[in-house]
């Protein structure tokens, strides 16, 4: 324990980070570690960087290990830490400890999410008793902690459990909250200003955050009763703060961070927006909205707040206006033509133009410019900048019944801007930029980030505007117009891609290739984003563009993209622009076998890029897309030309070995998946270079990283399918089963992967050789059922037993499974069947129902144990569960879509759960089409009919013992289909 401080210091150095983290990880499960770590964080004699590293490590323990199965934290340590965290927050209330306190506050929130209120019943009481009448430094710490707990309610779905927690908090915290709100507002709104005005204002800001937390799901009675004290015109706290601007808190005009009064007003507008959406009746008790709208005019009308520091306040107040317009409750406020003209002139136009700091960002921080620019797409909640907020007010007018007036008024501003530009293009480029932005806003009726504009304002001809004013910029030669206008033209295409025809889009693709070669970062990145989104357009479930459409362009597109990526220089710069890598991935996925003539060059370049970024992995999205690109290239080229597989193996084995040897944990999950993909491409046998990997894959350290497990399971299943007999000879099957029994099945997180690997074992290990292990294996499964049963586990267990009975492996029939269970305890099988399997069958998802049906049919017609008392008593209910499956035949047959799906059209990281996650980064391209483990049964009804015809005569007697209302009509239908059962 005495080494913790030096280990934390070492974890800050790149060279010693990994080793230090491993040692800390080992220490964390020792008794007393958490208390020792917290004492170190609070001990001012240690270096601040060490204490902060300790705070971050504590937060990560709370985030990643609090409910760990494999190496659990001692429960006594967890209970002790819960009791010490709030006092620790108070001890860190000095402003110099703000960064460390933030880590502790987040730790409290993370632990509370899991343990509150059941295991941490006194948390709220601890917070309330820590509040001070006079010391606002302490209050800020307590309120921050409270807000970090309550803030989680905002994103949660309504449920009884959630409201139980909220009501528990409100019953204790509401009165102290209201008292402190009133006290704090009184201090701030009285004269003269208090000497500690800044810290008191911080407390007021957090109190308003907590007000939002308390009202984000429903309106609590305490806040409903106090409505007027917050919302009443002139006298309510919120209205009074709108005009509050103490000289002591005014910031420098060049300051970029919002002042405390600006933050306070921004939060109040957020609450106004929430109330319009959730509690309009409550708001209508007084002219509160009218008061807020008046405040917007007074605060921001005619560009009264031009500074960057006020951006958040201006954006949020405009969002409040948009929400009020969209709600439809305030038509009298916004319906007159004069009001709309005033809105456009006083609020929209002053905020729609590009500002100086945005131009600086365009040049100096291009990725941030792109991030903010792209944020505005799907909904008002994504508004990030002033111009987006102003555009959203315009879109609210268009979509709320005022489109005629709004279009006409804005149309004159657009015409004027274009005329201004044409009079002097070099000087007045900003006028055209604003005109295009206005046109985009007024033309958009509905849009999503994923699909662009989905419906347009019928009064605006988007395609005509594109032809007359935008297309010319798209094809303008480099340097002939301002760089922003190239970006505007590409963005227009991106935004309105669904409004252009397939032929129109194909005709502009070559222009976008040219822009990929542009010098400016934003221009070529926008070109990549637009190509990616165009190639992802779907009509119904089918992609609009196929490999034939980009056959001639694919190599040039990839060359341009890879040139830009390669030219970036150091690893973190190469990996920063994931838009380029995503576009490269999309081209590979769309071009498919078209790339076969150039695949070696493309593969080598991808491998070289991987070699660069592996030195300092820094962007998970880029990582995902480069591995997806390699996987997709491998998939399509090898499927068309199998002889190319050795080239892929030669190119990839070296870098993959390096990644495994250097333990680059971000990449290892991908490596296992692509190794599995390559091994699966060998129809028979296992090449020696794969076989030499196998001992390493079966070491415990390989299985410690959760994210590696799915890829390892996929890889081991590929080994089993091709080399099962050899693995039995070398004793490696015992090692595979040890992994399943010791690491996967006992874990609630990984049990599903354990059963997945078990399926590979029962399919590919000869039953005679498996017999020696099978009873112990079933014992492990039953022990887990007894010690920590979950609904998911019961399903996985039941499905595995049915799967083992269903697969067509010589010597594996139903009695192989049943006899192993009966050896453990007589009559145990009947209990499992009746209590677990039969109730699970109707809950089986679509993809598993055929396996369940085949397993049950084989069990009922091929097992001698099932026909012998006392097991025979459970035969009739099991047969009824088969009949229920057949009563919903649509669940037993694959849908047309499923049969046609190649698995690859689903590659998209916004729509899928693919994409980078800490737990597991799945490669969609590495997933082959799903394999039917019972493909030997083409017709289930025929299979059942034949099985009953051939079955032991005792089956007919058991049929008669079933529920006649269910069994007889079903059997009669089979007889009518030609099966001589009776």
Helix-strand makeup class: mainly alpha
Radius of gyration: 33 Å
Distance between the termini: 76 Å
Query: How many helix segments?
Result: 50
- Residue fraction in strands: under 5%
Describe the strand arrangement of the main beta sheet, using strand numbers. 1-2
Question: What level of helicity do the residues show?
Answer: 55-70%
Oligomer category: single chain
* Strand count: 4
Largest sheet descriptor: 2 strands, antiparallel
Average pLDDT taken over every residue: 90
Low-confidence runs (pLDDT<50, min 5 residues)? 895-906, 908-919
What is the approximate shape? globular
Can you put this structure into words, describing what you see?
The chain has 982 residues and is mainly α. 66% of the residues lie in helices and 1% in strands. It has 50 helices and four strands.
SSE inventory with pairings:
Blueprint: H1 4-10, H2 17-28, H3 33-42, H4 48-64, H5 75-91, H6 98-115, H7 123-130, H8 136-150, H9 160-189, H10 197-215, H11 221-225, H12 227-231, H13 237-242, H14 260-278, H15 280-283, H16 288-300, H17 311-327, H18 331-334, H19 337-352, H20 356-364, H21 366-375, H22 386-399, H23 403-423, H24 429-443, E1 444-448, E2 452-456, H25 462-474, H26 483-495, H27 502-516, H28 521-535, E3 538-539, E4 542-543, H29 554-566, H30 571-576, H31 578-591, H32 599-613, H33 620-640, H34 645-661, H35 668-680, H36 688-691, H37 694-697, H38 709-729, H39 732-744, H40 751-764, H41 767-787, H42 791-806, H43 814-824, H44 828-840, H45 846-862, H46 875-886, H47 896-900, H48 940-950, H49 954-961, H50 964-976
Antiparallel strand pairs: 1-2, 3-4
Helix pairs in contact: 1-2, 1-4, 3-4, 3-5, 4-6, 5-6, 5-7, 6-8, 7-8, 8-10, 9-10, 10-14, 14-17, 16-17, 17-22, 19-22, 19-23, 20-21, 21-28, 22-23, 22-24, 23-24, 24-26, 25-26, 26-28, 27-28, 28-31, 29-31, 29-32, 31-33, 32-33, 32-34, 33-35, 35-38, 38-39, 38-40, 39-40, 40-42, 41-43, 42-43, ...
């Amino acid at each position: 324990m005495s080494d913790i401080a030096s280990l934390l210091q070492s974890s800050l150095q790149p060279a010693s980070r990994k080793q230090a983290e491993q040692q800390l990880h080992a220490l964390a499960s020792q008794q007393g570690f958490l208390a020792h770590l917290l004492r170190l964080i609070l001990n001012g004699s240690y270096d601040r960087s060490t204490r902060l590293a300790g705070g971050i490590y504590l937060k990560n323990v709370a985030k990643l290990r609090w409910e760990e199965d494999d190496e659990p934290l001692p429960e006594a340590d967890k209970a002790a830490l819960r009791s010490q965290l709030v006092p620790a927050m108070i001890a860190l209330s000095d402003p110099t400890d703000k960064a460390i306190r933030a880590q502790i506050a987040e730790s409290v929130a993370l632990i509370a999410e899991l343990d509150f209120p059941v295991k941490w019943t006194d948390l709220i009481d601890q917070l309330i008793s820590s509040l001070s009448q006079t010391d606002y430094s302490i209050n800020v710490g307590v309120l921050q902690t409270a807000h970090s707990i309550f803030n989680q309610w905002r994103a949660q779905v309504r449920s009884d459990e959630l409201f139980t927690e909220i009501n528990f908090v409100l019953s204790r915290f509401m009165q102290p909250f209201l008292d402190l709100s009133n006290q704090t507002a009184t201090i701030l709104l009285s004269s003269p200003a208090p000497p500690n005005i800044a810290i008191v204002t911080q407390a007021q800001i957090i109190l308003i955050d907590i007000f939002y937390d308390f009202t984000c799901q429903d309106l609590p009675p305490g806040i409903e009763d106090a409505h007027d004290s917050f919302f009443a015109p002139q006298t309510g706290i919120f209205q009074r703060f709108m005009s509050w601007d103490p000289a002591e808190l005014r910031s420098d005009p060049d300051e970029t961070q919002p002042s405390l009064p600006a933050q306070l007003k921004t939060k109040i507008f957020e609450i106004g927006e929430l109330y319009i959406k959730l509690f309009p009746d409550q708001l209508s008790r007084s002219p509160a909205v009218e008061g807020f709208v008046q405040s917007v005019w007074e605060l921001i009308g005619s560009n009264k707040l031009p500074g960057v520091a006020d951006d958040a306040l201006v954006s949020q107040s405009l969002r409040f206006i948009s929400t009020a317009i969209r709600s439809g409750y305030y038509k009298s406020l916004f319906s007159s033509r004069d009001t709309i003209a005033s809105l456009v002139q006083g609020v929209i136009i002053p905020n729609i133009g590009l500002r100086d700091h945005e131009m600086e960002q365009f040049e100096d921080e291009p990725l941030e410019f792109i991030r903010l620019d792209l944020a505005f797409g799907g909904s008002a909640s994504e508004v990030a900048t002033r111009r987006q907020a102003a555009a959203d007010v315009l879109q609210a007018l268009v979509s709320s019944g005022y489109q005629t007036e709004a279009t006409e008024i804005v149309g004159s501003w657009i015409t004027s801007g274009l005329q201004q530009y044409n009079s002097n293009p070099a000087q007045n480029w900003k006028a055209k930029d604003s005109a295009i932005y206005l046109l985009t806003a007024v033309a958009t009726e509905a849009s999503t980030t994923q699909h662009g504009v989905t419906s347009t304002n019928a009064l605006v001809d988007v395609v005509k505007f594109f032809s007359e004013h935008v297309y010319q910029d798209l094809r303008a030669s480099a340097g002939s117009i301002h760089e922003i206008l190239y970006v505007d033209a590409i963005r227009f295409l991106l935004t309105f891609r669904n409004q252009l025809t397939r032929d129109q889009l194909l005709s502009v693709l070559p222009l976008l290739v040219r822009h990929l070669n542009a010098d400016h970062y934003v221009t070529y990145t926008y070109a990549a984003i637009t190509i990616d989104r165009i190639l992802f357009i779907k009509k119904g479930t089918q992609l609009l563009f196929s490999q034939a459409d980009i056959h001639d362009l694919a190599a040039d597109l990839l060359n341009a993209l890879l040139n830009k990526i390669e030219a970036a220089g150091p690893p973190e710069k190469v990996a920063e622009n994931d838009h380029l890598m995503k576009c490269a991935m999309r081209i590979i996925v769309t071009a498919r076998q078209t790339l076969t003539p150039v695949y070696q060059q493309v593969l080598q370049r991808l491998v070289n890029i991987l070699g660069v970024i592996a030195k300092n992995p820094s962007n998970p999205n880029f990582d995902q897309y480069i591995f997806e690109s390699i996987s997709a290239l491998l998939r399509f080229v090898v499927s068309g030309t199998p002889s190319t597989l050795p080239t892929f193996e030669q190119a990839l084995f070296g870098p993959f070995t390096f990644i495994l040897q250097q333990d680059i944990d971000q990449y290892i999950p991908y490596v296992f998946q692509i190794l599995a993909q390559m091994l699966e491409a060998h129809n028979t046998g296992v090449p020696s270079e794969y076989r030499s990997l196998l001992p390493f894959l079966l070491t415990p350290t390989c299985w410690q990283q959760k994210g590696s497990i799915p890829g390892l399971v996929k890889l081991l299943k590929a080994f089993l399918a091709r080399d099962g007999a050899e693995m039995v000879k070398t004793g490696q099957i015992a090692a595979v089963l040890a992994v399943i029994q010791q690491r996967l099945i006992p874990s609630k997180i990984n049990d599903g992967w354990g059963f997945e690997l078990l399926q590979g074992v029962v399919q590919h290990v000869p039953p005679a050789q498996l017999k020696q292990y099978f009873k112990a294996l079933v014992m492990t499964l039953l022990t887990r059922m007894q010690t920590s049963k979950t609904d998911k586990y019961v399903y996985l267990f039941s499905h595995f037993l049915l799967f083992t009975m269903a697969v067509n492996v010589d010597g594996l029939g139903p009695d192989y499974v049943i006899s192993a269970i009966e050896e453990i305890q007589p009559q145990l099988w009947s209990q499992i069947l009746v209590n677990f399997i039969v109730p699970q069958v109707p809950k089986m998802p679509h993809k598993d129902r055929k396996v369940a049906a085949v397993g049950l049919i084989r069990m009922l017609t091929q097992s001698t144990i099932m026909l012998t008392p006392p097991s025979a008593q459970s035969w009739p209910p099991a047969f009824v569960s088969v009949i229920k499956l057949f009563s919903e035949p649509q669940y037993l047959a694959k849908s047309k879509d499923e049969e046609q799906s190649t698995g690859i059209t689903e590659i998209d990281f916004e729509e899928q759960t693919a994409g980078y996650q800490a737990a597991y980064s799945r490669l969609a391209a590495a997933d082959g089409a799903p394999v039917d483990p019972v493909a030997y049964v083409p017709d289930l009804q025929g299979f059942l009919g034949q099985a009953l015809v051939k079955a032991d005569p005792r089956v007919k007697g058991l049929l008669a013992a079933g529920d006649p209302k269910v069994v007889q009509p079903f059997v009669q239908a089979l007889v009518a289909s030609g099966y001589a059962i009776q």
